[in-house]
Fold each of these.
Amino acid sequence: MTDDVTAKIVRPWEVFAQDQRTIFCVDRTAGDDPDLDALFADLPPIQRMNQVHGCGVHEVSTPGTSTQIPDADAIVSSQAHVTLLVRTADCVPVVLWDRHSAVTAVVHAGWRGFVAGVIPAAVTAMISAGASVSSISAWIGPSICSQCYEVGLDVQSQIVALSRAALAQTTDGKPAADVGAGVADQLRVLGITEIAHDMRCTKETPSLYSARGGDQVQRLQFVVSVDGRN
Ligand SMILES: [Zn+2]
């Protein structure tokens, strides 16, 4: 890591380390890829996705990175040494890992991806890659809270159709949604019980980025380093 690079990093922090996964958060603008690679040069190459608010899963089954960045909203890897990236600013970032294997996933879950089924798609891909649902742990990162996330009734009904836990209204009675709560509920329904949830609101927390709060290009970048045992 060079001084040149660290000077551009405003708030890098380690979110947590557990079961041979370390989650870092770095705040960056969307176009900062070379700097991000330089910052994490001592980790395996970063696996990226072009997030499109869908339910596509990019599966990483061989070491190294492909030159093409796939359109996807989840990356699932069975590699023992790999680095995965998910970017958010209000949407829900999720990291999933199997405690008994190297299988690891990052998921970008905005309301559209949530409704499209990106969470079960990622878990299904993890099981196909060798994970067991009973040994999957989850970390749900900070996202926009329901009080800051007024939505139209049509959007609310699509979200709530998947999880009643996401039903919310603002203090002045407008329809709202709690997608983070919906994600946690969906994971529990899928059989995942080990869930850590960072409940901070991206819009109300000055150190986080929020698209609704006016951050047009800045994104929180969650970098997950896997140093597995197999
Ligand atoms: Zn809020």
Note: The chain has one domain: 3-144+194-227.
Amino acid sequence: MKVDFINSSYRRYYQAHKAQMMKALDRCFSKGDFILREEVARFEKNLADFCGVKYAAGVNSGTDALKIAYRALGCGSGDEVITVGHTFIASIEEIVHLGARPILIDVGEDGLMNVDQIEAAITEKTVGIVPVHLSGKVCDMARIMAIAKKHNLWVVEDACQALGAHFDGKPAGSFGHAACFSFISPKTLGCAGDAGGVITNDRKIYEKILLLRNHYNITQNALLGHQPKAPKIMGWGYNSRLDNIQAALLNIKIKYYPQMLKRRRQIAEKYNKGLAGLPVVLPTQQPEQIYQEYIIKVGNIWKFKKYMQDRNVELLVRDTVPNHKMLGLGLDRFNLPVTEKIAKELVRLPIYPELTDAEVDYVIKCVREYFLPAVKKSAK
Ligand SMILES: Cc1ncc(COP(=O)(O)O)c(C=O)c1O
């Protein structure tokens, strides 16, 4: 048996929904609907409803979502923004691109922002906090929002890996002043390439986002009935519109999304059960998380990966050097011991809804066989 890390997910999803997808493409081409048309507006409504917020704007990518959200909140030159070192580089990169300084704090063993470190990192230049809901788990938003309120800071949730996760019954992305999502193909709600979204409950922030994503052009959005009030001062914007074709594909997938999340959870539960008792650290669990990834910690990641590869199971090992240790980024002043430790231990198992039970069982069998000698030794 062969179990690949992600490609079978794309192929099987396509086979299962091909007729609908082709019909959607035909609709876009037949009408000539490519830029900021009906499918984009429909997807924005679907996204806002799914997240329980008032407004959603489609953009080009999760990276652009971050850039636009930071800018909509006024982030600029000389500002300091607190985020984590243990994240996909985009959360940090877009702070830097705006001329602001990222202030990196550590994570806990669960990979999420260590909230105890936030207040010590605040200076008179701090303007915002960017918690990252990594691997489908949500940061402690109750405490983060309380700290932000106390110090008058904005919060942008990087929820790129957490669409559909909840914290205390509330959707990820609905806590901060704005939140960002990525719909790049491997994400839980992935399109056929790149796409992203920003959500907010604040009308003013939303209007600014609509301008920023479209060259600060106040007339084009009027085509969609989104005519924002003319701002007193025009600004520099970006070309970061969500493509209408991608939106059409996402409008199909979002219908199946709750079902897809359910299947991911079933697979995670199979892994939890099947890998229990082995000398691996299983992922910490949150009751309301989604399973963007299933990450285990093993002693020798490369030996383990090779063993599984030889048995036709593809694993993903990435980011073994943490962002702040990357050469040329100028971030090595940060001391983040947990981030540094866990970067060397993490291995991702395949976890897409299209996996069959037989494939999941096969992955479990291979992992168990790998650890059998260690299990036998400890039993003696
Ligand atoms: C946590 C996080 N932030 C930001 C991004 C950037 O999203 P994109 O790749 O769509 O630009 C990603 C995903 O790639 C991510 O996982």
Note: Residues 61-63, 87-88, 90-91, 132, 158, 160-161, 182, 184, 194, 196 surround pyridoxal-5'-phosphate (CB under 6 Å).
